[in-house]
Amino acid sequence: MASVCIVDQLRMLHSSELHASVALLSGLAISITKNLNAFGPSQQYDILVYSGDSFFAKKEYRRAEAAYRRALNVRKGVPKSTKSAQKETNSSHVYFRIYECCMEEKNEDGALEALLSIEEKRRCSKVNYAIGKLYQARQMRRNAINCYKEVLRECPLALDCAIELLRLGEHPNVVISIMNVNGSVDWLPAYIKAHASVVNKEHTKSVVAFDALHKRVSLAGNPTVQYDLAIACYMADDHDSAMMHLKSLHRQERFWLRGMDLYASLLYDEKKAEELGKFSTELFAVSDLQPESWVALGYHALLNEDYTKAVYLAARANQLDPFSVQAFLLKAAGLVGLGEVQTALSHSKEAISLAPHRLDCYAKLVSCYMSENRNNDALTVAKSAFEALGPSPGSYVLCALTMLPDSSVLDKAGKLVDRALTLDPKHKSAIETKCSILYRQEKYAEAIKCLKLATQRFGSSALHCLLGDCYCKLSKLTDAVDHYSIALSLNPCCVEAKDGLSRVSEADRSDVFDAETGNSFETEESDRMTTGIAWPQDNPWF
After folding, report:
1. Is the whole-model pTM more than 0.85?
2. Average pLDDT across the chain, whole number
């Protein structure tokens, strides 16, 4: 009677999620079983499962896994008639818990083995989804597709599974037909096809599709769609629009974290120190348990040239999420600042392996190579980006950037930039690169014409600096000062603008000195002509 009471109390405590009490009572019950053999196999099984759940709740995953495996061994001695009555503590639950423990311990082989131990007819959507994820990680495409399809048949609006099927190469119409929802979800086909455009690298098309979804009355103001639109803009190399949508998303959903690390990197690229500092503080106040908050702080440290702090914050982000691409890029940038370029190279390569579809990962590796004057290696990476991402304005520009240090191939670099501008005449990086090429080719008048149009459209500090440099070369110092000043107003930390103003100041002093010297010689000559006195240079005293 006492034994039945203990098990019933354990069941009650477990259902009430009083895990500390479950841990204490189940530990005592296990000792009673060991010493007195007071419980039958079915009760022992329940006790061990409850014990495992209490350890799992306390994140003691190894102890939990050991308890679950002992429970499965005990279950072999449970009569079949009793097994069918166990609902809460069935074997599927135990195997799934073992899978979760193995995943926490980075043991994917053990995790997959545990899930495959569940009979197919007993596999619920949660189990099939987990198996599909593990198959996908092993590049077992067909098996993963079958698992995701099973999930969709049971849960037609499992949108995450639908997107994964698209990534695995399934046609959007096939995915929509499997989902088989009625006409009330009228936005679903457009949503699936928009994600299909992303998967197929049709980024311009995906921007149009997500923008149309964002403007639908039923989905107006939806943060998920706005996030998708921002990412689509970023992948289409429209960083200004991406930053605008992410900024709007942050204002609309103050506690939204997904994609905010990317927003921090865009603020860093634009050198908006004050805005980035405020944003990173706000984000960290939302949560310090997500990588986005640490990455945002890291980019603020990077902007202040505190490279050691930036690397530390990136490492903290990677501890929270080992697959955070933005954390790897941040760490690489910080390491380059510290002069640890070789380590930065490995982190940049890790970012590419995690996100081979992102041009910025290749760009970071290119910049690492170019910082060590390994321009041939940089060009090789740029070509691999072109092969992976296809002919896009960004991939053309990346190839052109690797050629800039070599003046003999500037014409070839210019042709690549022209191709980029043919695809997108408003591409910011392409316009900046074209202006840089014209400057290096000493075509200052043509560069000024191009830069004037670009600064009216974009108004970045880098463009104003380059325009100031062009005016300096043409000795138009007043115009140069104007544009250096504008660059500093846009980015108070702009080193190039400060250097430009210093050069102008030195040039002014040199001109004043030359003018004063010339005036003194003229005065001497006039005095000599009027007085007739022989000056020392005519009759040296020595």
Report:
1. no
2. 85
